Amino acid sequence: MKYVKPSMIQCYICSVITDFALSFGTIPYVLFPTMSGQPLGILSYLGIDIKSQTLLIIELLIGVACSIIGILENRFTCITRPRSSLKNHIIIYTLNGVYSNIILYFVFTNCPEQQSARQIVLYQLLPSDLPSHFYTDPLFVVSLNSFQVGMAILAIYVVLFVECIFFALGTTYKLYLQHNNTNLSSNTRKMQNKFFILICIQCSIPITVLAIPVCYVIISCSTSYFNQALNNLAFILFSFHGILTSISIILIHPAYREAQSLKKFCLMTIASKNNSWSYFNTPEFLVTSLHILTIIAIPIHLLGFYCVFFKTPPKMRYVKSSMIQCFLSGAVLDFAFSFGTIPYALLPTLSGHFLGVLSDLGMSQKSQVILIIELILIVGCSLIGILENRFTCITNRRSRFKNNFLIYLFNGSFLSFLVYLTFSNCPEQEEARRIVLYEILPPNLPAHFYTDPIFVISLQNDQIATTMMISFLYTFITCCGFVFGTFYKLYYLEKNRNLSKITKKMMIKFFILICIQCSIPLTVLAFPISYIAFSCSTLYFNQALNNLIFIIFSFHGILTTLSIICIHTEYRRVVFSIFKPPKTRVQSVFT
Length: 591
Known about the structure:
Keywords: Membrane, Transmembrane, Transmembrane helix. By secondary structure, the chain is mainly α. It contains 21 helices and 6 strands.
């Protein structure tokens, strides 16, 4: 790992410094949607002005993004042009730094006059029922044009994100075609594929943690939505990413795990005869984990069922049907994964067998495969349905049921047609099992692999991976279309309809809650689907990761139900009323 060590050090140092700067040095108390706030950290006590602290935090966040690009660029350069790795590294860091600082220079050189800007923020932009300390705190206003600052920061991160995608896809392409273009052995190529997957997992953690608060900031600034609790939560997530980055670096890479003896204390493995097959690779680990998830999920889903079906208030009646569909699809998929089927998949081959109760009841493996994929597509359709419901309720309430029915019919037909094309040409199973076990998978497999009733969906990985990505991208793009369409309508409601500001703010707040609720299953499902596509394209085999991604699939239903309960105020009150201890009456007795 000597070639990636400098980039790894940069990523680690940037994350640690940003972590301490946010959680100890500055502690920003920001008042989104206005670009104002105050720092509460130790740097304020040391006399550093607020403008410098603001610039410091933004520079550190950009440094984290640049360090992630540096790791991916390092892998790309080491595979394509090893001799010019240092030169390319310096050029890319310089260009990213110059580009980002030019944009920041134009933003921070035009700060408004603070006294009048504070008056505008407190008495015109923010709500009138603010706590008294807001009017005495030393607020610093970066700009009165939130859209300008938001677009500047977005422009920086979009460019950096595109660079990450470019280097990741470029490296994947080179690794996938390397056996045709170079004289590397198959073992060397597998080691490079495995190491690159570990790097991608490591880099995805800070990107994901940073993406959630960044998206909230953009939504808040574009819709003038104010919620100080969510503002604080966004910066807590910002601060938490450094811890996750350090833990991921230590746990993901075997060299660090062995150096810190974490394998002994945190990753207790039961080795096989050749000491290379751990307990995490076995069917027993998958079955035990999913059964534990089932036990945890039952009371959570029952509570969600009670809240959604019986405690939905009248003001949410238009979205109740879509909420029920979203809840039921998530819960059914949850139980199908963790109890009904329990798929033990052998990626990168599209094969495996089922360990759940449906196999004991005699259901064919092909039917179970189609059942799972159809349930995943139904979850996607339910997410589209709840966002379409909000869009239709705002634009044209009279055609709400008609639009909902037509969109469900079209999405279901289109996605089911893709599934039919994929599973109508399953290969002859005896010959397909022989190819999978003796030609595609590694030779040192446990004995149970050769006796398990493995079902092979297809020997053409590209076809299945393409179908999955088309389905996921179609669902994601459709959701984004309804989200942006609804935000556009909400933003221009003042001009087009005679609604009060309070009503408009309530509609914006409710739609933001719906977006947060829908983003959870999309985010949880995105990681396993991305890994499946990557594993199939690079022929990377790791049974422990195969088990882990299906555990993540099963976990998304619990998160969906918890998000429905926790995000919406009405359901939270119901839960608090159930678990709140009864008040005891104290009676005085006079004698």
